[in-house]
Every structure is written in C-alpha cells, then in structure tokens.
From TrEMBL:
Its main location: membrane. The keyword Acetylation does not apply. PROSITE patterns: ABC_TRANSPORTER_2. This is ABC transporter. Gene3D superfamilies: P-loop containing nucleotide triphosphate hydrolases. InterPro entries: AAA+_ATPase, ABC_transporter-like_ATP-bd, ABC_transporter_ATP-binding, P-loop_NTPase.
Length: 322
C-alpha cells in the first residue's frame, strides 16, 4: 500500500547568469530560485496494483519516486509505503522495496554478474536457501545463464537491464518502483522486460509504480495511470477513461476487396491515411459503430478494425489542455 498526501518537493537552486562578470558577481551576491519539482500531489495505490506514472520531461516523476523510496525528504506532505515513512530508510522498509532506474547502474560494474548478485545478497542479508531459489527463478525467467560469468561492464544494454532487474528483485520486494526500465532497449528487449514484470506482479502480488516514455510499457502493464505535469497531478484513473476523455475520435481501418473512388469516403469520415486497399478514417467516437455498420453494408469490405488513436497523441493532448 502506497499513500501520498499533499506531497511537495522544492529545491533551492543557485542561479547564475552566463559570462565572466556574472561569475565574479556570483562570488559576492548569490541569487537563488526555488524549483517546485512536485506540488500538492496525493494518491493511494493498493497492494498488488500496477500503476503507470506519465508526464513530460521534468514533470516531477523521478522526484516523486525518490520521495517514495526515501532518497529524498519531502518538503511538505506525508508519504507512507507499506506502513513506513520512506525517508527514515529503516532496514525493514528497504528490505521490502526496490527502485530500478533504467539510466543508472546499481550492480557492480567490474564484477561478473553472478558476483554482483552476491554483493546484493550480502546487502539484503539473504540466507543461502532464499537466495538460491530467488536467483534460480530469476535466471530462468530472465534467461541470464549465459550472462552470469560476464563482467557487468561488457553486457549489452538489454542484457544489463535484465541483470539489473534480477539484482533488484533477489530480495523479492513487495513494492517495485521502476523509472524507465526499458530505456534504450530494442523491441525484443522491451517485450522481455514487460513480460517479466507482468509475471512478477502476478506471481508475488507486488505493487508496481512505473514511469516510461514508451507508452507500450504502460499499456502492456498498467490499467491505471497517474499523469503529472509541472509537478502537479493532472489525472488519476483508468487509462481507458483518459483515452475516452481526451480523444473525441476513433480510427476505423478498412481493408477493401477492390479499390473505390476517393469521393466514396465523403460522409463516412475524414481519411487520415490511404495505402492501396487499406484506408484509415477518423470518426467521431459516438458515431464509430454506426459508421462501421454502414461501411460493411455499402462497400466491398474485407476487414474493419476500430482503434483508439496512439496513446502518445492522447497524452500530448492532455498536456496541451493542462
Ligand atoms: N536535485 C535537484 N535540484 C534542483 N532541481 C531539481 C533536482 N532534481 C530535480 N530537479 C528539477 O525538478 C524538476 C522535476 O524533475 P524530475 O527529474 O522529477 O522530472 P521527471 O518527470 O522525472 O523528468 P524526466 O522524464 O525528464 O526524467 C525538473 O525541473 C528538475 O530540473
């Protein structure tokens, strides 16, 4: 269980104009500004839920995750994770959570992966049997056998990320914070990490809060999303509701058995793409079913698919309206 009430995190930063004169002036007169990285953010995540955390660059996602894991002390507000106050960094709390950051290495760079895992075993004080069974399971699920003897520094990005996940989950955390876990991975690497995370959540009922710039991660793993922009929470609810609220249109992709004149589409919807026999129409959401039925009744249709616009476009619309 994660409970966040009126969380704010402000940073006081030194501001200096560029140039030599400004550098000298700054020696005697330091100017400061306050950055409101997170402001009045409240949400609750029940045990076992997977929640996507979305927002543009600099929105406050990482800062929130750092407050939830105790790396940062909130300026205002309260945070409770598993009944603990994270910034106290109590061992009983740290043993039950994990933070995985796609852009940072947590494993020892110079050690073979197997030895790097041993370091984590010592940090978490895992007993031989618990460690062995967790490691065996992770090695199988993440296909790590061929990597165990290789130095972490020589692993490819995708291989390293799989090892990072294993290292972060050896102690079987109940709450998992993931900051861009598929950053830079190719399509196969992303799919492997997503499948693994879905499986981990199902197996252990772990609570997961996940940030990602790849909407595929979020749509594959989370039903609920939190949307943050400039430090403020803009949306908390079902991804489907977000899509519905911010996308008044749907896409109908029609595959025809034979070509039809371009003017045929007038009255059905706006043509957004036409590729031979496949035509994509943009249609008001409320009229989708009726338009699809008319298409089937009046045109030589082989196939009809109804889709929402890409979630990326919808999220962009949320930020634009915010
Ligand atoms: N230690 C710090 N000192 C000063 N400002 C900071 C610090 N950490 C973060 N910020 C600022 O707080 C804001 C939120 O940053 P944060 O890293 O939380 O965003 P984010 O949503 O994770 O962005 P991204 O998607 O780019 O990783 C930004 O304006 C950032 O510059």
């Amino acid at each position: 269980m994660i409970e966040v009430r009126d969380l704010a995190k402000h940073f006081r930063v030194h501001r200096r104009q560029p140039g030599l004169r400004a550098a000298f002036r700054a020696l005697v007169h330091r100017e400061h500004v306050t950055v409101h990285a997170v402001d009045q953010v409240s949400f609750t995540i029940p045990t076992g839920e997977v929640v996507g955390f979305l927002g543009p660059n600099g929105a406050g996602k990482t800062t929130t995750l750092k407050c939830l894991t105790g790396l940062l002390h909130p300026t205002v507000g309260s945070v409770r994770v598993l009944g603990h106050t994270p910034h106290r960094r109590e061992p009983a709390f740290l043993r039950r959570i994990s933070l995985v950051m796609g852009q940072r290495n947590a494993l020892f760079w110079d050690l073979p992966a197997a030895d790097a895992f041993e370091v984590n075993r010592a940090i978490y004080g895992l007993t031989g049997a618990a460690y062995r069974s967790a490691l065996d399971e992770l090695v199988t699920l993440l296909d790590l056998e061929p990597l165990l003897t290789k130095q972490v520094r020589v692993l490819s990005l995708g291989e390293r990320m799989r090892c990072e996940l294993a290292g972060a989950l050896l102690h079987r955390p109940d709450v998992l914070f993931l900051d861009e876990p598929t950053l830079g991975l190719d399509v196969n690497g992303q799919a492997a990490v997503r499948a693994f995370l879905r499986d981990y959540n199902a197996r252990y009922g772990a609570t997961v809060l996940l940030t990602s710039h790849y909407m595929g991660d979020v749509t594959a793993l989370a039903r609920r999303v939190l949307v943050i922009d400039r430090g403020t929470l803009r949306f908390d609810g079902d991804l489907a509701a977000l899509v519905e609220a911010h996308s008044p249109h749907r896409l109908i992709r029609v595959t025809l058995r034979e070509a039809v004149p371009a003017q045929t589409w007038v009255g059905f919807g706006e043509v957004s793409a036409a590729d031979g026999a496949v035509v994509t129409l943009v249609v008001p959401r409320a009229e989708t079913a009726a338009v699809a039925a008319r298409l089937l009744a009046t045109l030589p249709v082989e196939d009809v698919a109804i889709e929402d616009p890409p979630v990326e476009d919808i999220i962009r619309a949320v930020f634009t309206h915010a």
